[in-house]
Specification:
alpha/beta, D-Maltodextrin-Binding Protein, domain 2, 3 domains, 8-stranded mixed sheet, two-stranded antiparallel sheet, 10 helices
Length: 296
């Protein structure tokens, strides 16, 4: 029996635009122009006979029909992608890697050149996320996800332990000379910096030392990367994971007067279970890099 499907390119364009919330973001993901996404969505609307978006062009909203269509369509495309990857076991090609945005900038990218040098025929395509949480959403869409695991249970075939998170207060050397931080209680009344995606970081650090830290208002930034740059600029004291600041400490841009303590979080890499030789190479390299990361 012949399948009665709308054009697949139009379905992909709509799914990306609806999932990401913007035509421009969908265009970036599919490597086409925003105009091409709009035309594909319009073609799909004509094929279906109803509208998929409503409202202004700047802030389009999904119609009721589009809201009902999106979950099934995303699941179907994920299944297609997973099935293709399952039968693809080549040593060369592209790997899709997802990890936190600041982790990507401060830890992974400075080391990725070593992998590219060793395996020039394997392309690493990085996707970033902003929240530090044990989140498997989209796991079928990536070959490997670097994330945080807060449970004791892990599948040894698909979950690779990298290193425990170690938190500590960091600040610019010039600011450290002015305010003289020698013990945790010296932080009282000082300018503490906060990150919206990790508002519990100061509390976790204080709990690791079994000490109390008064809740202090301070500048709040959208992402860890911005908070770290603010600390480097002397705007205040940031609570940060060692692996994100060790290069800045070595370079003298930051100091850590109180050291670092394990937070209870564990960084892990969650890989596809299917056989994949190029992914095997990346995982082996990633474990090497994790082992070579110095302890504070």
């Amino acid at each position: 029996m012949k399948r009665n499907l709308p054009p697949l390119n139009a379905l992909r364009a709509f799914e990306a635009a609806a999932r990401l919330g913007r035509m421009t973001a969908a265009a970036d993901e599919l490597a086409v122009t925003p105009g091409a996404i709009s035309r594909q969505v319009r073609q799909l609307e004509l094929s279906l006979g109803f509208s998929l978006f409503e409202g202004s062009k700047n802030k389009p909203q999904l119609t009721a029909a589009a809201t009902a269509l999106l979950p099934a369509l995303s699941a179907a495309l994920d299944q297609i992608e997973a099935a293709v990857r399952a039968v693809s076991d080549e040593e060369n090609g592209t790997l899709d890697i997802s990890c936190f945005s600041t982790f990507t900038v401060k830890w992974l990218i400075p080391r990725i050149y070593a992998f590219n040098t060793r395996y020039p025929d394997i392309e690493i395509r990085l996707k970033t996320s902003g929240h530090i949480a044990d989140n498997d959403n989209g796991r079928d869409r990536y070959d490997l996800m670097i994330t945080v695991d807060v449970t004791a249970q892990a599948d040894p075939l698909t979950v690779l332990p990298l290193f425990p998170e170690r938190l500590g207060p960091v600040l610019a050397p010039a600011l450290a000379e002015k305010i003289n931080i020698c013990k945790p209680k010296d932080l009282a009344g000082k300018p503490l910096l906060h990150t919206k995606t990790r508002l519990n970081a100061w509390r976790m650090w204080a709990d690791s030392l079994d000490c109390s830290l008064p809740k202090q208002a301070g500048q709040e930034f959208e992402h860890y990367y911005f908070t770290l740059e603010a600390a480097i600029g002397g705007l205040g004291i940031c609570i940060a994971p060692w692996h994100l600041v060790m290069d800045d400490i070595r370079a003298g841009r930051l100091v850590a007067p109180l050291g670092f303590q394990e937070s209870g979080y564990q960084y892990v890499a969650k890989r596809r279970q299917q056989t994949n030789r190029k992914l095997d190479k990346f995982c082996a390299w990633l474990l090497e890099q994790a082992r070579d990361t110095p302890i504070p």
